[in-house]
Amino acid sequence: MTAPATAPDPGAAVQPSTIGALSQLIQDALDKGSSYGKLAEQAIDPDSGETVSKAYLQRIVKNPPANPPTVPMMKAIATALRKPFERVQEAVAKQWLLYEATELAGYDEEVRIIVGHLAGKSKAELVQWRMMIEAAERAKREAGE
User: Fold this and answer.
1) pLDDT score of 120 more than 90
2) Taking the model in full, what pTM does it have?
3) Burial class, 83, CB count within 10 angstroms (exposed 0-12 / middle 13-18 / buried 19+)
């Protein structure tokens, strides 16, 4: 017995999604039962009143424009998706600027500087830094501090 030609090869690797981050947020809403029309009806920036059309939302998912949405458009999209503005802003940055934000809330400036410094290090350098930090913490505990 043979499988139909359209059946996926069970041994083949799953291809990662190539859809952009904002496109994915909109697609997720569609997958949960919304529609482009419903989203467009709700896509109103609470500050400026700017709206986003059904056609624009479709373009973001199907054939994203070259330029990212403006801040009022992002606020409108966030309202429609019922997501925090920051989440939509991060998705726009990731999709159009290839920038992924890392949140370090609750830490002081020193910690942010250290994390920023380590961000460009190789795996071996990161392991070395981690071992040094852990050794310093161990020494403090053993010294009773």
Assistant:
1) no
2) 0.62
3) middle
